[in-house]
From TrEMBL:
Pfam families: p450. GO terms for cellular component: membrane. It comes from the Eukaryota. GO terms for molecular function: heme binding; iron ion binding; monooxygenase activity; oxidoreductase activity, acting on paired donors, with incorporation or reduction of molecular oxygen. This is Cytochrome P450. Keywords: Heme, Iron, Membrane, Metal-binding, Monooxygenase, Oxidoreductase, Transmembrane, Transmembrane helix. Belongs to the cytochrome P450 family. It is found in: Membrane. Heme binds at C382. PANTHER family: CYTOCHROME P450 72A15-LIKE, CYTOCHROME P450 FAMILY MEMBER. It comes from Hevea brasiliensis. InterPro entries: Cyt_P450 (IPR001128), Cyt_P450_E_grp-I (IPR002401), Cyt_P450_sf (IPR036396), Cytochrome_P450_Monooxygen (IPR050665). It is a single-pass membrane protein.
């Protein structure tokens, strides 16, 4: 228990704090080991070639594991589907997230980032510096970006949905590990969870109806999804689009906000690299607003602090893994965090922030290119990767143009897993305008 409650020093390995049980499993039984999760057998595979095999297997042996029904209130979109339904839905909505389509949303990304810079300038104006929790700031930014890019002219309604979804995330997380049947008891909190879900759906349904009636030609994600619906011959419905919008809020805010948070923490811990990144941005952009191609160091942070620390799969039928016969009903645990911190693939200085590892590209950064997969791998690679990358690149470049930053004495280093990897006690930094 102490491992997950006490902060650690900046140079300590993070795995013993984030996953103390799995850390002990690997040390005692190796990278391929079996344990029990309640009555469910669980097989951990911490070897890149086995992870790749599970994620790219095409015979239908592996599916997403069963989850608490309340999680469906957050992510009932494409990520919850399997088999032919998943393949068809993903094929339909993927064009909405192509880089060329997203480039049309750059003005919306820019507006949100400019608002952040303006707010920080005001906060630092009185004393020439200020301390703030950038984790909170980036959650506000990510929510604002999603509201702007997903709903365009319906931005205010988008913000309302975002606020409801924020409340829903907290309520669902609170009940996530509870006994399953308890979620069906009409307690005050359970009633609130389902009331929020219905309010979000009603608001989105009204917005979709108005857009369809107006024959909107705006370039926002909701319009792009409606185009997919129009072209799909009833393979995607209005209710499906509602679930995709909810998933975008849930996944898009958590991932990008925590990505930016860890980036500023790491650059504060490594001021020499912060300055190199700033020089790079200023050489390319000067003081102009950056574009999507101007900042290329972001993914490096995701080795040390991957947003998704572990993936789970479930054996649908008997299969064979590395000579082991695995029956149906076994949970397969794929620990991204362990592979990203494995000295066998990254060297003895694995815990150090060394961007030069990636000087010759991601595929040459380690002994196995599968040792780095921050957005998943193969068919299940994250659909929102381009969206998150554009937002994070633009925000970081603008921050580097306007501020230098350092860790506050009040910062406690406490990496923790909830849905994504996040700093448990916040990310208190001191900002100085340039």
């Amino acid at each position: 228990m102490e491992a997950v409650t006490k902060p650690i020093s900046l140079n300590d390995p993070i795995i013993p704090r984030v996953f103390p049980f799995f850390d002990a499993m690997v040390k005692n039984y190796g990278k391929v080991s079996m344990s029990w999760f309640g009555t469910r057998p669980r097989l951990m595979l911490a070897e890149p070639e086995l992870i790749k095999w599970v994620l790219t297997e095409k015979c239908g042996h592996f599916v997403r594991p069963p989850v608490n029904p309340l999680v469906d209130l957050l992510e009932r979109g494409v990520s919850s589907l399997e088999g032919e339904k998943w393949a068809k839905r993903r094929k339909l909505i993927t064009p909405a997230f192509h880089l060329e389509k997203l480039k049309g949303m750059i003005p919306a990304f820019t507006r949100s980032c400019c608002d952040l810079i303006h707010r920080w300038n005001e906060l630092t104006s009185a004393q020439g510096w200020c301390e703030l929790d950038v984790k909170t700031e980036f959650h506000i930014l990510a929510g604002d970006v999603i509201a702007q890019t997903a709903f365009g002219s319906n931005y205010k309604e988008g913000k309302k949905i975002f606020q409801l979804q924020e409340e829903q995330v907290l309520l669902v997380l609170e009940a996530h590990h509870s006994i399953t049947f308890l979620v069906f008891i009409p307690t005050k909190k359970n009633k609130r969870r389902y009331a929020i879900d219905e309010e979000i759906k009603t608001t989105l349904r009204d917005m979709i109806h108005r857009k369809e009636q107006a024959k909107s030609s705006n370039v926002d994600l909701l319009d792009l999804l409606l185009q997919c619906k129009k072209q799909s011959e009833n393979d995607i419905t209005t209710e499906d689009i509602i679930e995709e919008c909810k998933l975008l809020y849930f996944a898009g805010q958590e991932t990008t906000a925590n990505w930016l948070t860890w980036t500023l923490i790491v650059l504060s811990m490594n001021p020499n690299w912060q300055e190199k990144a700033r020089v790079e941005v200023l050489q390319v952009c000067g003081k102009r607003t950056p574009d999507v191609n101007d900042q290329n160091r972001l993914k490096i942070v995701l080795r040390l602090y991957p947003l998704v620390t572990v993936l789970f799969r479930h054996t649908l039928r008997e299969t064979n893994i590395k000579g082991m016969s695995i029956p149906a009903g076994v949970e397969i645990l794929l620990p991204i965090l362990f592979v990203h911190h494995d000295p066998h693939y990254w060297g003895d200085n694995v815990e150090e922030f060394r961007p030069e590892r990636f000087a010759e590209g991601v595929s040459n950064a380690s002994k196995d290119q599968m040792a780095f997969y921050p957005f998943g791998w193969g068919p299940i690679i994250c659909l929102g990767q381009n969206f998150a990358t554009i937002e994070a690149k633009m925000a970081l470049a603008m921050i580097l143009q306007h501020f230098w930053f350092e860790l506050s004495p009040s910062y406690s280093h406490a990496p923790c897993r909830r849905i994504t990897l996040y700093p448990q006690h916040g990310a208190q930094l001191i900002l100085h305008p340039i």
